[in-house]
Amino acid sequence: MSARRLLLLGPPGAGKGTQARLLAAQLGVPVIATGDMLRQAVAEDSQLGRSARALMEAGKLVTDELVIEVAKERLNREDARHGFILDGFPRTVAQARALDALLQKLGVELECCVMMVVDEDEVVERLLKRARIEGRSDDNEVSIRVRMREYREKTAPLAEHYRKLGVLRETSGSGSIEQITTRIEEALKQGAEELA
Ligand code: ADP
């Protein structure tokens, strides 16, 4: 498994964050999760946080302009030079195009986009459970529905973008954490063989 520039795609609650952390530890690369970075900005009450807060609480996507800036700054840092796992960015076609342009400028390529396929009812159940346990302010039923709609309308079309680039791998996001990790590893190997 040699790919070190990866993107995890999938609906909210698909388990991208968990899998991103496990893969990152194995590969020795950082996870770049725009959701976490934005939540931190909200907690710090920075200018970015103040611009993002209301949209996030409502379950809506933050503007492309803001998120692209955040992701660019992070990808330009030294520790991302030798690889990264993107979780939650890009989420729109405009963001994907901005990422393509940035990577091109950096002289590197995204090696694999792993699409975690999960049934919508299942992820809504998971998010409601997480809401009871963690109490994240956007894990309420109304926001969850908005997030799912945003995903369907704006993010799901990215599969086509990455299919055209020849890096899309689809994998089921159902089952135990270990089962899903194994499947993602398989998908990455398969990608490496196809490229070889
Ligand atoms: P989820 O579990 O819903 O996928 P994330 O932690 O990835 O949550 O993101 C939380 C919120 O942060 C999103 O609902 C959205 O408001 C904002 N956000 C994160 N990444 C992006 C992005 N790439 N584009 C726009 N908004 C984003």
Description:
It is a single chain. The protein has nine helices and five strands, in the order E-H-E-H-H-H-E-H-E-H-H-H-E-H. It is 60% helix and 12% strand. A five-stranded parallel sheet has the order 2-3-1-4-5, with helices on both faces. It has one domain (5-195): Rossmann fold. Helix 2 (34-44) packs across helix 3 (47-58), helix 4 runs parallel beside helix 5 and helix 6 (120-134) crosses helix 7 (141-155). It binds adenosine-5'-diphosphate (ADP). The site of adenosine-5'-diphosphate (ADP) has 19 residues, from helix 2 and helix 3.
Task: Record the SSE blueprint.
Blueprint: E1 5-9, H1 16-27, E2 31-33, H2 34-44, H3 47-58, H4 64-75, E3 84-87, H5 93-106, E4 112-117, H6 120-134, H7 141-155, H8 158-164, E5 168-172, H9 177-195
Parallel strand pairs: 1-3, 1-4, 2-3, 4-5
The protein binds adenosine-5'-diphosphate.
